[in-house]
Each structure stands twice: as structure tokens, then as C-alpha cells.
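Recap quiz, item 2
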Amino acid sequence: MLAFALIVSLVGGSGCAPAERADLVLHNGPEPETIDPQILTGQADGRIASALFEGLTRFNPTNGSAMPGLASRWAISADGRTYTFVLRPGVCWSTGEPITADEVVWSWRRAVTPATAADYASQFFCVRNGRALVNGELRDPSLLGAEAVDAQTIRVHLENPTPFFLELVASRVFFPIPRHAVARWGDQWIRADPLPCSGPYQLERWRVNDRFRLRRNPRYWDAAQVTAERIDILSGDNPSTALNLFLKGEVDLISDRKIIPGELGPELAQRPEFHRFDYLGQDFIRFNTTRKPFHDARVRRAVAMALDRSRITTRITRLGERPSAAVTPAGTGGYQPPSGVSWDPAAARALLAEAGYPGGRGFPTVEYTFNVGSRLYEQTGVEIQSMLREHLGLRVELRPLEWKTYLAEMSALNYDFIRGSWVGDYDDPMTFLDCFLSDSGNNRTGWKDARYDRLLQRAAAEGDPDRRRGILREAERLLVEEAVPVTGLYSHVGLYAADPRKVGGIWPNRMDEHPFFSMRRIRP
Amino acid sequence: MKSLWARVALIPVLVWAVATLSFFLLRAVPGGPFDRERAAASREVEAALKARYHWDEPLWRQYLRYLGNLLQGDLGPSLKYRNHSVNDLLVQTVPVSLSLGAMAFGVAMGLGIPLGTLAALGRHRWADQAAGLLTLVGVCIPVFVLGPFLILVLGLWLEWLPVALWGHWKNAVLPTLTLGLYFAARISRWMREGLQEVLKSPHVQAARAKGLSESRVILRHAVPVALLPVVSYTGPMLADLLTGSFVVENVFQIPGTGAFFINSFFSRDYTMMMGMVLFYSVLLQGLNLVSDLLLRWLDPRIRP
């Protein structure tokens, strides 16, 4: 009896969530690193932030496009370079203070100030002087091309016509943040209690590695649409546990592919509660162009041609991924990427012979580096190893590295060829292609080509959408067919779990955006 | 008693040595906290981030800064969880891990000692068999198999207990059993062997000869002696319980320290890693002291 009393008091005493179930319970994957919209980079982090805050625009839950958010309307100038947003009358923080145009502009200026250390500040490069401010070439943040015309109107001047700007404005780094909270709490304003929120929910409690408990924000401009009074967002990184919770009905929605057990993915995807969709992500291989033998474009092309990508998607990933030798997933922003080098072992052998390695003779043993953590990456490595031996007679050794070592080695160009992937930040090919600009920190191949840089510059300045896509296609052709510092493997397929009989208001979309304002629990 | 004080006095030295070793060892590992999949927006942004954590200073100054903060009880900011300090994270998670450890300890002792005793007395065949079965199951099946097995049967099939999470007492049952059974098994075995040995010893026979009742002989004269090896094992056992709880916490998604012990290394969250190492080294040193004190109290031979 005594022992029992002790146990009860211990569990109670370790201060945990109340037993009462929230109206909706989501499993969000790993504990967020931060939920500060200007600082965060992770998807799990972003989901919490978008429950608490909103931008001038917000994502349409059905297709991920931009729709009115804190701004009720906007006007775009004829040249596509000036946007004028008008805030909704009466929009305010959950703590009652009004959200003003000044505050929006102030927030953006803060984001582009290097001292804020916002990794996503690069999203402001399209705004006038944004790049120069983030790069530290300009020091005065008031030079950013955004101004408060009056208390409700914000005018933004862009460097170039940017067809995806409205989607950018819906992304986290563009969320206005509460100036008064920052004044009082500084960098740690997100820990303010109560936290001023502008989104459909406000923060009730945050328990590390356990859950965020959110309560409906009655001051949200669209609060009438928000039906769940309380939401629990669980944090945890064990996929089997997440699945158990879902199967037991204790979790209504698993919002991240990474916490659905990978090896069960193809089987689970057959069930009606699991939803599959084309996702804005791509797996590829980077070649180290600064090192023998991959300094030779012919060798890179030969390797890219000898890879039968469908072997990876049908034997390993098995979720219906689309094999692709390009870098941009098909359909991104209505764009069709070039096909990339096609699978042609005979041509690959000829190319390799031309480069001085007939039948693979004289070719050094090369290492294929990948990060451990998913069996898929290892199996893909084995498949690549066997395809290159089979078709080109090359000897490939596998080099699995733990995550941070993998990142450090990739940035230091200390590899032969290496697994890579990218998830787009907005629905436009530019989010993939600008990784491979000569001066991009995400390039990580050592490849620099002024022609490529110029093509992307031209595309950015092009106002006509069709012509712009044409230039981007030309650039991508140079990237994945001619120079090949990178070659695509397959485009990602997203997966989330939600029982359609219990949860409504969410739809699969390629941005994997599932806004909280529309999400609701269906009562039996 | 003197050696005891010496050991208490040694704790600050231990803290310093552990802090120094882990500080420099961690820096020797390739990859750092600021190596990320997405490059920073610009060099200035990256520099600002590093400056915030004094990463731009020479290593010796960072080391002195760390020690200086440590003296004031400040373990620094987490390098991964940017809205939390290490102290903050420990304060939130340590009580959870300690409660889980304490409950599992309760199961280990509460199940292990009586079962071992009954088995040693050999009067109840069922007790002997139960102890044997428990030993076999507990020792042979690792927690990462036992946990999911219990979840499957008691959580998913029979639906008696929750499959994960923490908060309600029901949440604690499966993880406590998963973690406690292994140690209960070992303790019951030791108790059984120890007691069988003690029951043959002259002082027990003398007690019987004095005409004491059998229950008094066993409870007053035999069991305390048989407990000695069990008690001296509690120190290391608590250490095993606390480190073993990492797996259990992961399987049951319990918001304890376990997640940090593993992940803070993989994310190169140096300050968090060091906070964990320091906290556990002090805790284990303290637990060993407690188990020594208990032994002195139980065993007259080592009383000063």
C-alpha cells in the first residue's frame, strides 16, 4: 500500500500532463529545437510555430497555395515588383495588443539582421536590399525594401518579380513577432508567459520531450473556424511508439513521415488511415568535383547513366517514389525538369572508356558516403555499389557516417560521392536550383559555373512565367545532363497518418502544409 | 568515517576531472553543433550564431568560461534546444527519470527479496518455480524486447494499459515492470543463494538452539545477513537502472533524461552532453556513498 502511494505520488510529483485527453492529439516527431518562427529550421518546429503564429498570408490547407492571413487583401504592381498588403481591421495578439504594420516591418528587419542569426533569412533575398543586409554589406535594417505606409498597410519592394512571393510570406520567417515581448524577454521572447500569439492557438504548456498543450486563441481573426478547444502536440522520436499510440487511438494524427516506421511504410500506405502524396523533396548524389576521378564530368555522367533508379524505388523505398535524374521534383511550381541523363549502361561504358578507364580499368576504388540512421540509405548504397560494379566494373566502398560527421565531411568536400537530399521551402524550382549556385553554402560539390549562375540570375529577373521556366530548365539541363556535379535518384513521397473518420480538415498537398485553423476532430 | 569524508571531499575533484575530460574529448570528435544540413543564410549569420555561444573565442577561454559558470551552478545554454538552458532541461527531465528509476527499484526489491527468500526456504514449490521463471525471463530477455512484448500483450491486445507516454499512474506500470523485472530477477537469485548459505551458518544454528521461533530466526538473524550482498549491489544496480532507463524511456516515450543522453551526442550539443555526464557522475558517486552507509549500518563487522 505504502509502495503504491509512493508510486502515485512520484508520478504525480514528476509534474506531467493531466490525464484529460485533448480534443486532438498529434504526433509531431522530435522535440523542436526552437519554436521561434525567425530562428527555426526543422519541420517539427515549424508545425508548432504555425499553430501559434500567422503571416500576412497563410497556406491553403487543400493545396498549399497562399490565401489571405493577417492581411485581408493585397495588390501587386504591374511589373510584379511591388506588393501592398492591407492588414485586417482589429487583428491583435492573443494578449490583446494590436498587430500593426509597423510591427510587421520591424519583425522583418529583425529577421534580416545577422545578429538575430536567422538561418532562413535567405528567404528575404528577393526583397530589396535583403541579400545585402543578410550578408552584412548593408548595416542599416531600415534599408530593407519594406515600409509601413500607415497603421494597416505594408508595402514591399522586391528585387525581381517573384512568382512565389505570396507563399514565402506565408512561411515562418515572415511571421510578425510581438515586439513588446521581444523588448521584455530579448532572444528568449518565445518563453514569455503568457506568450502573445497571432495564430489559431495559444501556448498553454510546453514540456520538453513530452508535449505542447495548445488552447484555442479566441482573439484569432478566424477563431470561428477553429473548433478544437485544446490540442496536444506530442514530441518523441521513436516511430514504433508513435505507431502504437496511433493504433491505440491515443494519437489522432502522425504528421511526419519520419516517425512512421520506414520498413512498414509500403504496407501501412495500403490502409485508409495512411495518406500518400507527392512531396517537395528529392534524393540525389553529390559528386566531389575537386577530386580525382570525379573532377572529370565524363566520369560523373557515366556513373549517373549506369544507375537504374527504378531499382531503388521498386526494391527499397517502395512508396511509389518517382525515379528521377533531375534535382527538381516534377511539377514543382508547374515546372517540368529536364529528364537528366538517361539510363544507358552501354553509353556509360563508352564514356568511361573515353575518360581513360575502359571497362573500369585503372579506376581507383571510390567511397560512397551516406548518413546512418535509416536502413533505406544503407540499402541504396548497396544497390549503387552493385549497379556500378555490374555495368561499369567499378569498385565502390560504402562509408556510413553518423549525421554530424557526415555534414562536416560533406561541407569540407572530404568525400568521393555522397548521398544528398533537399526539401523545397516553397513551391518553385528556384528552391532546389539555387543550392548549386557557385557561392551557395548548400552547393557542397566544389562545382562552380558562371553560366549556371547567370542563367539563374536571368530567370529571377524574368517576368514572364513561361519564359522564366524555360530559362530554369536550361539551367537545370546544364546541372544534371552536362556538368552533373549532382544526379537525382528519386522524388520523395510524403506520408501521414490520420483516420478520416476521426480527423477532418486536412488534405495531402505537396508542400506538406496542414494548417491548424482547418483541422478538426470529427465527433462520433 | 574518515574515508567517507574523504570521498565526499573528492566529489568536486571528480566534477572538475569529468568536466575537463568531457570538454576536450567532445571537441575532438568530428562535426560540431553548427554543422547543419541547411547552410546558414550568410557567413555573417553563421558568425553571429557562433558569437552568441562564444564559439569564436579560443578554446582555453571557452574552457575557463565553462568552469566559471559551473562554479556558479550554471551548466550553460543548450546548443541544440535554443530556448532552453541545460539547467532548465535537467530540472524538467531528471525528476521523471528518477521516479521511473525509483519505482523500478521498488519492483526489483519488492519482488526480488520476498521471492528469493521464499525460494531459499524451499517450503513452497511454487515460490521456487516462480523465482526460477522470473530469473530466467528477467535475465534472458533484454528490455528492448520485453518492453515491446508487454506493450503488445497488455497494451494493444488486452488494452489494459496505455502503450506509452507519462502522467497518469497507469502510464508508469509497463515501463516500471520492463525496467524492474530484470533487476528483480537478479536480486531474487542472489537473495536465494545468500539465504541458503546463511541458513547453514553456525550463528543461525545457535539462534535455533536458543529455542527462537523459526520466523524470528529467519527474519532477525538470517535475512539481514543474506541482504548484505544485495545491498552492496544496490549502488551499481541504481547506476544500471538509471542508464537502463534510457532504452525504456525511448520505447515508452517518457520525457526523462534518456533522450538527451544519446541525442545530445549525435547533435553535438556539447553543453547538454556535459551537463548529463556531470549530473550522472555526481549522482552515482552519491548513490555509492549511500549504499556504503547502508552496509555499515547492516553489517556490524565493518562498523567503525
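Residues 93-266 of chain B form a domain with the MetI-like fold fold (CATH 1.10.3720.10).
The mean pLDDT of chain B is 89.
End of item.
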